[in-house]
Structures are given as C-alpha cells and as structure tokens.
Amino acid sequence: xxxxxxxxxxxxxxxxxxxxxxxxxxxxxxxxxxxxxxxxxxxxxxxxxxxxxxxxxxxxxxxxxxxxxxxxxxxxxxxxxxxxxxxxxxxxxxxxxxxxxxxxxxxxxxxxxxxxxxxxxxxxxxxxxxxxxxxxxxxxxxxxxxxxxxxxxxxxxxxxx
Length: 161
Known about the structure:
Elements: E1 2-5, H1 11-24, H2 36-42, E2 47-52, E3 55-64, E4 74-81, H3 90-104, E5 109-114, H4 119-127, E6 131-142, E7 145-155
C-alpha cells in the first residue's frame, strides 16, 4: 500500500468511497457528495489517498475549522476507507500520515466528529492519539433522526507546544 497526495484525477475514486460512507449512514450528515470544485475548496492541503495495486482504497483530508485567525492551525479530520478493505490497516495508515503532514503544515489541533455507532472510527482515532472530549447530543438530523456526535481531538506535541 502506498500513501500519497490526492490529485484531481483521484476524484472519481474518492467520491465513490465517500458515497459508500454516505450510504452506510454512520459516516457523515451529508446525503450526497459534492462536486469536485466544492470539495476541493473545502479541503486544502494536506489531503491524501491510500493506493493498493494501483487503485485508490481510501482518503484522508483536513478542512479548516474557521477562517478566523485565532483558529489557524485547527482542522477537522475526514478519513474514509473503501468497504472492501476496511479493517486491513488502511484507515490507520492514512490517519497517521495525515497527522504527520498536519504537523508539518503547522496544525496544532485536529478535531474529529464521529457518530457513536461508528465504533471502528472511534477506535481508529483513539489509536492515533485522539482523545474523546465529549458527546454533542442531537447535533444534527439525518433522515429524520437526530444524531449524537462524539467529539475527539488530538493536540500536537510538536506544534504550538
């Protein structure tokens, strides 16, 4: 497996993996994937893909928490893995690489919001140094159901210390 920078021509595979997560119902509040232009604008560097046997099997990216200068260096994490390779270490490799790249880019805090039912994602984030901050109850509605979100964060020991 190879972790590399995401390129625009990876978008069809990245979008497909994202849509799998949307269909699963426990990855995001989104109900449809955005256009490349919208996704690209919302996810500046770093953004990575995992490639196995020439195929993109997962992706990870950061989006800024806010454009206010006091939040510079704080990012929201997205990690998605193709259903066919879940549980094989792809998510961990992506998240570890994203953490490393985020620190190189000056991020000092990473946030992740995960549905409580997505236990694998919670375990993954904790294995990569995130801690549970709390549960945001009834944060949003998805398909007529109000959903809680577990808020996790990771503070860099290299940046902002």
